[in-house]
């Protein structure tokens, strides 16, 4: 998921130019190992590991983690790693494009698309939270059944011939039933209808920053949500789709559907921790925890004399450390472990010299 192994990534165009295998590096390596190189910003990439210093780079060893595997076999690369985006394969920002347009990231392929190249006019940014591009909707064809209930706006019926959509209704003929099942990638057995696990209009119980584990309830005759939706009329179009914040929790998690997700390599769709919103909220929560001052917790357990002494020492440390780190920020260099160790050794040495100069007399 994004929270554990996905950070801001950059592609190194200097070390891996066009014609060679692309590579992605983490933010820390972009400063420490590739500070003067030409880089492309990639934002987040799912389950991606830093390539710095591996076999993709000739005569380069990572300064932060020298011992790395030769290849990150789990990494996936696309045209973004060469600074090209969308179906138009253009850079961003594009100096030749005078049309103001918002770039939106597809949550499946993680490519970025111009709003005007999605086959549909995007809703207002506040009306949806995630987008799936045209190509990924063709790949994940089962999602069209969910779009009739969950997409923004919901794709429920054709308003005119201009919609250029296809109405699918599996109740019309046995031939259509077989076609829908083939599209879903799962051959379901005919089962008794009437049971429902969850209504699609129920509110989500998950919060923005927490990611509940997906629990699967076993029963003798489980009801497949996808099969129920496919038994009704729904619209299929050649466009991207837009989805609200809690739509992933509505996806079916029966055994057949889980198998289908695995075959299509989209298991992450049922993981609410995979969303960029959850990832950003986790980062915000971590920052708030980091901003909590440990000094106040310690002061509550001390007497007045100890409190004054600790505050003085703490202020000295804070001032000197801030001045020390500011030099690294001004120079644009990464702070290493040995730099911090050197600072505290010097700080303790200065503290001892100050203490030794003090003399106390009794009258």
TrEMBL record:
Keywords: Isopeptide bond, Metal-binding, Phosphoprotein, Transferase, Ubl conjugation, Ubl conjugation pathway, Zinc, Zinc-finger. It is an enzyme of class 2 (transferase). Residues 198-210 have a biased composition (Polar residues). Coiled coil: none annotated. One of its GO terms (cellular component) is cytoplasm. GO terms for molecular function: ubiquitin protein ligase activity; zinc ion binding. Residues 5-66 form the UBR-type domain. It catalyses: S-ubiquitinyl-[E2 ubiquitin-conjugating enzyme]-L-cysteine + [acceptor protein]-L-lysine = [E2 ubiquitin-conjugating enzyme]-L-cysteine + N(6)-ubiquitinyl-[acceptor protein]-L-lysine. Residues 177-216 are annotated as: Disordered. Transmembrane segments: none annotated. SUPFAM superfamilies: FYVE/PHD zinc finger. Residues 177-196 have a biased composition (Basic and acidic residues). Its EC number is 2.3.2.27. InterPro entries: UBR7 (IPR040204), UBR7-like_UBR-box (IPR047506), Znf_FYVE_PHD (IPR011011), Znf_RING/FYVE/PHD (IPR013083), Znf_UBR (IPR003126). Pathway: Protein modification; protein ubiquitination. E3 ubiquitin-protein ligase which is a component of the N-end rule pathway. Recognizes and binds to proteins bearing specific N-terminal residues that are destabilizing according to the N-end rule, leading to their ubiquitination and subsequent degradation. This is Putative E3 ubiquitin-protein ligase UBR7.
